[in-house]
Specification:
Shape: globular
Strand content: 15-25%
Strand order of the largest sheet: 1-4-5-6-7-8-9-10-11
Largest sheet: 9 strands, mixed
Number of helices: 17
Distance between the termini: 69 Å
Number of strands: 20
Length: 456
Amino acid sequence: MNCSSIQLNDLPNENLVLIFKNLNNINLLYSIIGVNKRFNEIAHDSMFTNCLTLFGYLTNGYIYPLPKLMLDRFCLQILPEIHHKINWLDLEPLTMKRILLSANYPNLTGLGIVNIEKQTALNLLMDETLVHVFKNQISSLVIETINQYDKSADLDTRLFTCIFDIFTNLKYLNFDPDFICHQQISFVISPPTMFSSTLLELDVKPKLPNLQCFSLYCLSEIHFYDEVISMLHRMSNLEELSLYLSVNCNDRFIDGNDLKQNIINYMLRLNLFHFDFRLKAKQGYCHIYSYPFTARSYENIANNFSGGLFTCVSKVTLFDEYPFEHEFFIRIAQSFPFMKFLTITNRKPQNDKQYRKLKNNNQDLLIINYPHLKYIHFKDTHDDYVEQFLLDTKTILPYDVNIYVDYKTLKRVTHNIRRNATQINCYKATYQCFDRIIRFPKYFKDYFHDIKLHIL
């Protein structure tokens, strides 16, 4: 029997394209451009050159520059060769300037800048040699900043002002100062949705007639809602608008009529409006949102939560001054099927548990499954809620879930790390310990999947 070896160059173009489509575009271009004329023609196809992510990234969100040899070849050979085919570039700050100056990009309309400090972003945008060539071309801009605690109250304002002054044809802006630490970004499928948690002031004075899509996320409570409305009035041609705000509004009541009169009536081209408002007025709280709910977090859910289906939400916080019963957690699990982060704050013991003890009622409860849960934080929480999640007769936890709970509480609930009824769920979990523990019991390591100590 004769054996024959088939080399890559022996395959027809259709097969090569199918293979190459499953590879990372950057690695593909680095590997096949310059090999031969046939490979060059395939590599120049728009499916491989249209959108380029010129940095490395790991699954945990860590971002790093391209290796020097790879960067040199891209800047000296590959980018000058395919420059006219590039529509979108995703860059990181250490190599951004060299990449942008290595070629002309006549068809570049989208730019993503990731892993950058806000001051560095401002400096780069103000560099005339860097962006003046593209300022009339860029219609889509994504900026993803790294976590930092800048005390300058006007830095965000200066950065936004710079963006709007430079990019005169801007239609889509997505800006992310310091999103929650657990959020990871990925450019494997599409540019990410980003959030603003620390925005202090946003002053947009000129009109923005070309802006078609605008999103504003602010997790901190704001007192300048009227300024937000004034800013939106300068964006009269918006087609898509997303507002996710926590508003202190003692002097007004925001409802559907208010949104219609102050926002919708000013935007005749508006086709899509997503909103999530958490309103605080004196001692009262109110929550209004559009449906389907598109935000990734749902904060401060109490017992009056009516349920629903929130497939976009991955982060949930629960808070109430009245106890959460087992049926409440059933409603939470059904409403948030893709929940990954859960924080519980409740000091009150469960009434239903006490009632069952008094009546000696051992009727089986419906066991609740949380298939996607990755982090549970018991914050200022009664022991009953720790038991609610650790008892295998009440809850099924997934493997590799991380549990944040006070060590003394954990010892009480697990009967000094010896309780059989909590061992199954604990063995699936990593215990994240922030207490100063001199010594764990010798059997502790066999009770949990893993233990992580954090000495504060």
